[in-house]
Design a protein that fits this description.
Elements lengths: L1 E5 L7 E4 L9 E10 L2 H7 L12 E2 L4 E4 L5 E4 L12 E5 L3 E3 L6 H21 L7 E5 L4 H12 L4 E6 L3 H5 L4 E4 L32 H11 L5 E4 L3 H9 L6 E4 L12 H5 L4 E4 L7 H16 L7 E5 L3 H10 L4 E5 L2
Parallel strand pairs: 9-10, 9-12, 10-11, 12-13, 13-14, 15-16
Antiparallel strand pairs: 1-2, 1-4, 3-5, 3-7, 3-16, 5-6, 6-8
Helix pairs in contact: 2-3, 2-8, 5-6
The structure holds NADP nicotinamide-adenine-dinucleotide phosphate.
Length: 338
């Protein structure tokens, strides 16, 4: 079969021939329709990810959507190495097959895999979001962030604030307020009309000087006194500022490090607001929790309540797509595997 094959750690996979997977008593062959590319795929293929290096050669790709031999459409987020989702066919443990809601396109269902589940589970399962709470989403222009803004609302948040480096994308999000982390053009924008977005409170940050008091003040204003739940794929100065503006008893869900690997965290920043800093990874959630979340999430997408911009690339174009993913794609990349 044709597949995206990793031959050396830290190098892009190539469109190559690979042995066909064979079904067993506890693993099924899935005919892959589409698979999302994610930062996780690149991290695993580097050979240095904490889950351990994949075998060589092996097929890359962690999750996807496809068909079982009986025609049932499934999502999977676990594979049996050396097989991976970026291939015509993949071997999946029988216990890791999830239903996909009717009415959602397979490419969108694949796009929602890693990114959507991260957003959904971070909010519902890890943060235990309660109705009417205020959610602050950092990195809101990214795929996880864009999903989190919409999912927070669907899960009953009272106020949703999107924070990211300034861009048209940030201002297109359906948030109650936005905060520009880099404060470009004279300050961050904290909007309160639910749909607009211009001018306002000074903000600094992004990858640079960002944990300053201006950004803390901008976040506090945009959140109406601080967030109850912070979704954080960034770490670095934006995370520090978000903690500085957190409401008492807030949960800070740490799920990525796009802005920085380290921060200098003053003890009072955690102690004073009784802040919970919660590490999160999708696979911390039990499989039944992931299965249930995925079905409800794809139902939400089918009803039009969850949308992502995505770009579809053919499996034969994997090497170029991989490089784009590595550099930060700006839009969700989905590989069409057939
Ligand atoms: N823990 C988990 O289970 C889990 C699951 C899924 C993803 N993740 C992690 O979550 C993170 C985001 O994933 P994604 O798919 O949303 O990525 P993405 O689509 O590439 O988005 C990246 C986001 O980070 C922002 N960003 C990048 N560098 C930045 C900097 N120096 N300062 C401020 N913002 C910066 C981007 O802003 P611009 O739009 O301005 O570039 C964008 O908002 C990744 O680290 C990923 O590994 C974790």
């Amino acid at each position: 079969m044709r597949a995206a094959v990793l031959h050396d750690y830290g190098t892009p996979p190539h469109y190559d021939e690979f042995d066909e997977p064979r079904p067993s008593d506890d693993a099924a062959v899935v005919e892959v329709e589409a698979a999302g590319l994610s930062h996780l795929d690149v991290a695993k293929a580097s050979g240095t990810f904490y889950t351990g290096p994949p075998p060589l050669p092996s097929v890359v790709g962690s999750d996807g959507v496809g068909r079982l031999p009986d025609g049932r459409r499934v999502f999977f987020d676990t594979v049996v190495p050396p097989y991976g989702s970026l291939a015509e066919r993949v071997l999946v443990p029988s216990g890791a097959l999830f239903d996909v809601a009717e009415g959602v396109d397979s490419r969108m269902a694949a796009a929602l895999g890693n990114s959507g589940l991260a957003a959904w589970l971070a909010l519902e399962w890890r943060a235990r979001l309660r109705p009417e709470e205020t959610v602050l989403v950092l990195g809101a222009t990214g795929t996880v962030g864009t999903a989190a803004v919409q999912i927070a609302r669907a899960l009953g948040a009272g106020r949703v604030v999107a924070a990211a480096r300034s861009s048209e994308r940030l201002h297109r999000l359906d948030a109650d307020a936005v905060v520009e982390l880099d404060g470009a053009g004279g300050g961050g924008a904290s909007r309160t009309d639910g749909h607009g977005g211009d001018g306002g409170t000074g903000a600094t940050g992004g990858g640079g000087a960002g944990a300053g008091g201006d950004l803390v003040a901008a976040i506090r204003e945009a959140t109406g006194g601080g967030a109850d739940v912070i979704i954080d794929p960034l770490w670095g100065p934006p995370a520090l500022a978000a903690m500085g503006a957190a409401r008492h008893g807030a949960r800070h869900i740490q799920l990525g490090q796009q802005a920085a690997m380290r921060i200098d965290l003053p003890a009072p920043l955690v102690r004073s607001p009784a802040l919970d800093i919660c590490g999160f990874a999708i696979f911390h959630a039990p499989v039944e929790v992931r299965r249930d979340a995925y079905l409800r999430m794809t139902r939400l997408a089918a009803s039009g309540g969850l949308k992502l911009d995505l770009q579809v690339v053919p499996l034969s174009g994997i090497t170029g797509a991989w490089e784009r993913q590595r550099c930060g794609p700006g839009t969700k990349l989905v590989v069409a595997c057939h």
